[in-house]
Each structure stands twice: as structure tokens, then as C-alpha cells.
Specification:
Helix content is 25%, strand content 27%. It has 510 residues and is α+β, with helices and mostly antiparallel strands.
Amino acid sequence: MLSYASLDMALRPPLFLALFILQWAPSHSWSPSPALLNALVDVSQLDSGMPQQVHIAVTKKNTEMSATWVTFDEVIQFMNALPVPQQVQYRKVFTSKLKTIQAKTTKFVNPTGWTRYVHRATMTDLTPGESYAYQVGRPGFLSKEFVFKQLPLQPPYNILVFGDLGVYNGESIPALLQDAAKKAYDLIVNVGDMAYDLFSNNGQTGDQYFATLEPLFATVPYMVVAGNHEAEENWNANYTTYVNSFTMPDEGYGDNQFYSFDVGPIHFVALSSEYYGFYYLYGMEPVFNQYDWLVKDLEAANKNRKDRPWIVSYFHRPFYCSNDNSEECNAFENRLVRDGWLQMPGLESIMIEQGVDIAFWGHEHSYERFFPRTPTAKQSDSPYTNPGGPIYIISGSAGCHSGYAYFGDPVEYSAARINDYGYSKMWVPNATHIRFDQYSVEKDAVVDSVWIVKDKQTKFEKVKAERGRCDRVSSQGHALSQEEGNRRAIRYQALIFDFCSLCLYSNGFH
């Protein structure tokens, strides 16, 4: 397939030069806070043979927890002439009986040439609600001991939600580490764009991100989805660093970019908006695979509403936003994710049809909360009580190199907009109530809060999406053959992206 990078090369050199200048212009110079500088780990001082970047994640079973870690060298020990594999050793807190699980090791060689050894092991036979201590590595080369609490079967739960967190200007990092020390969370949801970027600087940016946040990620299940900064499109690498870095629940597709899991009264559904955003590079098949799986998953979840009344989705690109870079909020890819194009089905219709209650997004480096997507929400005195449509929240303000994302005129259904650095907290006290708080690390305070109450299941009513000039391109595309439509779509995106990039990037990379 013709690659994006090969199109209109005559236009690209001066445009990319301009983007480079804009990126590093004085208006984009930020000085990291002393707290952030103190928090960042110097990975060059770490022992390359020791386990590093430990993070845990839930699986499809509530009696398991997966652990993933890396080493920079393949240290091989022998016992009775046989190599000793990497492993996880774990025990229930306040007991001494250890259980050991052998890890599966993968030698990951990034297309740009750097190498990491990635190790994965799943702790089994865990009791929900109990705390466990564990170490990873080999005998004599074990990590420090970490402690996590296996998610209990019933509320309450404290859930952390954030996206678009970089190493440079990652102003939420010190506060997140303080929260980790307080054991403030039961679960973490990351809506994409990590480190900026996981693969940058021969992987060292990702190394620093994981090493710095290890006290949080090694003690609280860290559930992730890919953002556009994980795509590695410049060398057609197809998210390879993301895929090799994380162990998410297995849906049988050999793919960790879409999956679901249950936590008490909530069915979580993680999706990849990037299958849409980069379909012109990686093809449409991932879009179709994900959608086919999603329909089945949501149908099954709806049959289980009595036990799990909530369905919460998260992915990277928003359906709607009202940031100043309005061209991005109305960009072709965002509409593609929402409404679909050619044979590719969009996501909003199925989410409304199947009654998805809440969706978290990132991509925009700000916080924006929306009224429920229903015709009567804005006229209601209590729109968040038994809402008749999904509630959308953008949580992309954790902090990265591009700084603040300012707002233009609010779009329809926008309820709250904040561009302080910070992150979201989801408090689930019982099966009928969820509270969302947006925490500002600058003000050290909650700057937005809303309760969502659902004590009955409401059938959602479809709302006609706002339309714009991108749909004229879509309507033309529907009348074309898939091959011709793909060709035009690629060229359209390449030209529009280049034309708009100067103004978009002057407000920060997204």
C-alpha cells in the first residue's frame, strides 16, 4: 500500500522545517518544575541486568494479575547446567509462603535498532481484596518488593484516569507519585499518548517514563490504550513498542489494543481509535476485527446488566472537543472514529445503541466534560441522573511538551472546560453512583466534580451528529470503490494534514 510518507514529498520538506521551527519557538519553551526534575529517574544509573520498569495489569480473571518488566541485558544463570528463567515470586502479605511463576521472555528489537528483553508472568490463585507482595527477576537479580491489592469483587473503588502524559513537562508526575505513596487508587486507566514517545531517543524516553512511574504502575493495575504517539508511523512500525511494552487482557486476536474486563459493577471496554487514524498505513482489517469483537462484547455485557449495570469505554481520540485548534476537533480522523467512512463503521452509533454509559478520551491536552448525549440533557435539572445518553469526558491534561491546550467556542453539549495540568478521579462507592473529580496539580484542588446516578436502565436516544465539511468528502467516498476511496482518502489526509499542521502545531503537538 502506498505510504503516507511517500505522498507529496515536494511539499513536505519546507512544511516540516516550519513545524520544527514552530515546535522549538520561544513560545513553546517550558521550564519543568523543580518537583518534576526531582521526580524523574536517571535511567543511565540503573543496572542493565536488573529488572526494571515493572508494571501490573488485570486479566480476564479476577483471581489473576499479570506482571511485565524489562532488562537491558540477557543475563543467563545456570542451575544444574540448565538456564534459570525470569520469574515472579509472590506471597500474601503477612505470610511467608512463596509461589513462583516462570516468565515468558521476548527479545524485542525495535525497527530503529535498539533492543529490550521483555518478561511477562501472570500471578494466579489470588483472592480478591487481599494484598500481595511480589518480586520479579532471577534469583540474585530480583527487583525490590512491591505490594498490590487484588481488586475486590464489590465497591468501593478509586480509579485514576489520565492521558497525554510526557516525561518533558509531565507536571502531574510528582502528584501521581505522592498518590502512589498514599495507596490512593485501585485501578489506573491511561487513554493514550505516553512519554512522548515510548520509542524516542532509542527507547530511553520510554525507559525514563516507566522507571519514574514504577512506584505507581508496579502497585496499581495499569490499563492502557494506544494513542497516535504510539503508532510509530514514520517507519511503518505498527505500534511495535506499545505492543511489546504492555500485557493487556487477551481477546484471542493476538492484539493488545482492544479488550474488556470487569471491576465490580463496571464492564470496562478499551478500544483503539488509532486503527481508524492510521488505517491508510496499516489497513482496514484491524478496524473490522475490533468492531466485530465490540458488537459481541457489548451484546454480552448488556445481558449482564443486572450484575454489572455500568459500561465504561476508553480510547484516545475524541468524538467531540472545543479546543482552540478547531481544525483538529473537526479533523477527518476524529469524524472517522465517530461516524465511520467507506466500509469502516464508526463507534458512536454502536455505543449509543448498546447503552455505553461513559467514555473517556484524551488527545486534546485539556479537560472537558460533556452533558449526556441526549436531546433533553441540557434542559434537565438533573441531567446526570439516569441519563438517556453516554457521558463523554476528555482527560488529556496530565502534562507534556506542548503545554496548555486553549479553548475556542464551546461545542454543543460541552459542560465544563479546564486547561490546568491535572488528571481525573473516578470514585465508585456502590453500584448506582459514580463521582468524577478533575484534580488540578497547579491548584492542588478539585476543579470540577459531578455525580452520575443510575438506579434504572434507560434506553438511549440517538442524537444527530453535528456535520461539517469533512462529511462532503465522506459522502463522495461512499460512492467510490474501496480501492479508489482509499487512494483519495490517503491523498486527502496527506494534503489536509500538511495544510493544517502549521496552525495545529503552533498550539502544540497532539
